[in-house]
Amino acid sequence: MDYPLHDWLPLAFAALMGLSILAYVVLDGFDLGVGVLSIFATEKERDVMIGSIGPFWDANETWLVLAVGLLLVAFPAAHGEILVRLYLPATLLLIALILRGVAFEFRSKAPVATKRLWDYTFFAGSLLAALAQGYMLAIYILALDDSFEAAAFGLLTALCLACAYAFIGATWLIAKTEGDLQLKSVEWGRRTLWFAALGMGLISLVTPFASQRIFEKWFGFPEIILLAPLPLMTLGLFVALVLLLRQAPFPQDRWAWAPFVLTIIVFCLGFVGLGYSFFPYVVPESMTIWEAAAGRGSLAIILVGALVTLPIIVFYNIYAYKVFGGKATALRYE
Amino acid sequence: MEDALLLARIQFAANITFHILFPTITIALAWVLLYFRVKFTRTGDEAWMEAYRFWVKVFALSFGLGVVSGITMSFQFGTNWPGFMERVGDVAGPLLAYEVLTAFFLEAAFLGIMLFGEKRVSPLMHTLATVFVAVGTTLSAFWILVLNSWMQTPVGFEIIDGVVTPTDWLAIIFNPSMPYRLTHMLLASGLTVAFLIAGISALRWLWGDRREGVMKPLRFGVILGAVLIPAQIVAGDMHGLNTFEHQPAKVAAMEGAWETKSHAPLVLFGWPDDESRENHFEIAIPSLASIILTHSAEGVVPGLNDFVTAEGEVLHPPVTPVFFAFRIMIGVGVLMLAVSWAVGWRIWSQGGPGLWGARALVAMTFSGWVATVAGWYVTEIGRQPWLVTGVLQTHEAVAPHAAPVVAVSLTAYLAIYVFLLAAYIGAILHLARKATADRGGAPGRGPVALPAPAYAKPD
Q: I want to staple B221 with a disulfide (CB 3.0 to 4.6 A). Which of A51, A254, A304, B197 is the partner?
């Protein structure tokens, strides 16, 4: 297929949107995962777990606003098409994110007697948000199919994505906690790893078989050889994670960050694979990024703003992670 | 289809009503926090820092609710109103993008540092983080109000193949109603925060907590309210004249004016009837509407009947909701003026709000919300049947969902919003109770029941 590459603005926005989605999946992925795991912790541990994501969750969630915002402003036709088709899961996702976000604030500010309620809300919201995202991903992969089989695949993917989030959440906690909670996190990581791997394998298999076009993109020649490193590296990383988690935690807390970093790389590889499969479509099999893009003049104006602010955003995000570096404690306003 | 449209509109209204409550607080509260922070740095008086620490929690709570309800907004365009971006996306897109980028710019880092970083960064960095959060919330408001104002008074574009294409971005940004609407909204935010701070502080005062950590924000809130309300009345009047110039049908609905005439009366009260196209039980002052809107008793004020086409298509908003929302907004404004000035005078002359002054402040705690929401209903319902005045009608933009689907999502949203609103107010009251209890006050009981603490100022 030939792409009108001289018309590069839609391409630039597809890249920006892709990066925002990736940032969201990794960053909110780990804090949603911590939320999913929070139900298995004691009250004290839960305070530390929530403390470990406290300064970040607002910013993490804003990547979703940016990603959906970019879809909205750069590919308005696709935004409508996709979200109208995914109406109910999108509504569920939003309600889940609302509940989870407010539970986060209320559990520390409402009367002690209701803290329990907000803890459950926090867990339920985190889980539901992860499930809804998994379901939406699956239906998107199946080109917005609304058959019964698609829904079944959607539910399975939903479970796997929730586990994948729980897994990256566990690896975050391994890095950010110590003592018993760290041991627990290692155990959580060991258990959820398999489901995360299963989900990734499942999606890797279903995507090419759902579309002839994608099948040829992967299994044609020489693509199959050029692309081979992608699945092989992912496999290698999973093996490394299994071995790491079997031994963790290490003396003097060595390699505490390794599982988290490796998991981020796995997420990135998976994302590259999906991006490669769907390009140049923004609505699978029906609308390319060039067809869906807004007026080029407006895109240029947005791009200027994005290029000025995004590097600063990234820089200050990193700064915030540094300020709140080290092992997590329960949150205090000081 | 009619039902689905109405449900989709109610859903959008519910979402944006719930959302606007929290930015209305955070926009001004960020600046107030900065003021507390700087006051503390300048004077070293712990009372300012105590006020900061209390209100920063309310800020965090409001910000969190604003973030999550804001995410809903960015989805709503696609899930329910795909026609909006298809037709005017080339104008709305960049404005929304700039809003997200600036909002994000502040959220990305500074909020976390502002809330939890006091001990982790230098005092200067902590103050700077507060500055950036304040600037960010205000910039966010700026971009959103630019877009909303453009939808009310669109300029700087041409229509090519049915799609709105921007031709002059300066004209789009500084469209005719933007400066008025922005000023009106920023003042509304300031007033909402003034009465919130005064009300909660007055409640703690009634509980017997009368230390400087409570008295300083109490005085601050009352003075801020007393100063801003006259400014708001002037700004609101100018905004009204601007609307009269550009959207006369909206003003006609606000006034309940059906017939076009000179010597138009000002309807103080009445019951507009959209069916029979007249007001019942009308009480009006002759010629006053003409004088206010045109500065002459002879001035002609267009009536609603001018906005019905020969084919019978109604191109003016539904009158009843606009008419009553306008009166609620004005009524709350008058109350704000009376309470802030009366209590302000009492504090000025006698050093404290007094029992009834404090009770009045408590009653007015959330008055800013009522006025702000009522004002938005005036301007948004008043824009109907247009989504973008003269360019795109609301029914053209709605997504083709079946009514029951929207009914389900709407019910879920409404249930959650009612629950969260109760929880939000409950949490603020709980924070106040805890702050007072921690300092030896007795929350929940009247001041008469206990001796005034030794450190309390005589009232």
A: B197
Rg of the Cα atoms in chain B: 24
Q: How far apart, in whole angstroms, are the C-alpha atoms of residue A89 and residue A133?
A: 8
Cis peptide before B385 (omega within 30 of 0): yes
Structure tokens at B333: 């404004």
**For residue B42, which amino acid is it?**
R
CA-wise closest residue to B431 among A108, A183, A39, A270: A108
Which one, of B424, B446, B239, B224, lies nearest residue B341 by Cα? B224
Assign residue B20 a region (left: φ > 0; alpha: ψ between -120 and 50; beta: otherwise): alpha
Phi, psi dihedrals of residue A329, rounded to the nearest 5°? -130, 170
Residue range B220-271, pLDDT digits in tens: 999 999 999 999 999 998 998 888 888 888 888 888 888 888 888 888 888 8
Cβ atoms within 10 A of the Cβ of A216, count? 11
Whether ipTM exceeds 0.95: no
Q: Measured between alpha carbons, how far is B125 from A165 in angstroms, rounded to an integer?
A: 34
> Which pLDDT does position B108 carry in this prediction?
57
Task: Using a CB–CB cutoff of 8 Å, tell me whether B420 touches chain A.
Answer: yes
Cα(A324)–Cα(A32) distance, rounded to whole angstroms?
19
The contacts of residue B142 (CB under 8 Å, 6+ apart) are: B182
Distances B404 to B4, B85, B409 between C-alpha atoms, Å: 8, 24, 9
Identify the closest residue of chain A to B105 by CA–CA distance.
A313
- List CB contacts of B6: < 8 A, sequence separation 6 or more: none
Q: Is B63 on the interface with A (CB under 8 A)?
A: yes
Residue that is written with structure tokens 């910013």 in the block: A59
- Do the beta carbons of residue B191 and residue B32 sit within 8 Å? no
Q: How many CB pairs under 8 A join A and B?
A: 228
B window 316-355, beta carbon within 8 A of A: none
Are the beta carbons of B68 and A61 separated by less than 8 Å? Answer: yes
Give the DSSP H/E element, type plus range, for residue A293.
none
Query: If DSSP codes are grouped into helix, strand and coil, which group holds residue A58?
Result: helix
Q: Is A287 helix (H, G, I), strand (E, B) or coil?
A: strand
Q: Are the C-beta atoms of residues B104 and A66 closer than 8 Å to each other?
A: yes
| Closest alpha carbon to A52 in A321, A281, A334 | A321
The pLDDT tens digits for B358-397 are 999 999 999 999 999 999 999 999 998 899 988 888 888 8
Inter-residue contact B78 to A82 (CB < 8 Å): yes
How many degrees, rounded to 5, is the angle at CA A159 between CA A124 and CA A58? 45
User: Which is it for strands B163-166 and B157-160: parallel, antiparallel or unpaired?
Assistant: antiparallel
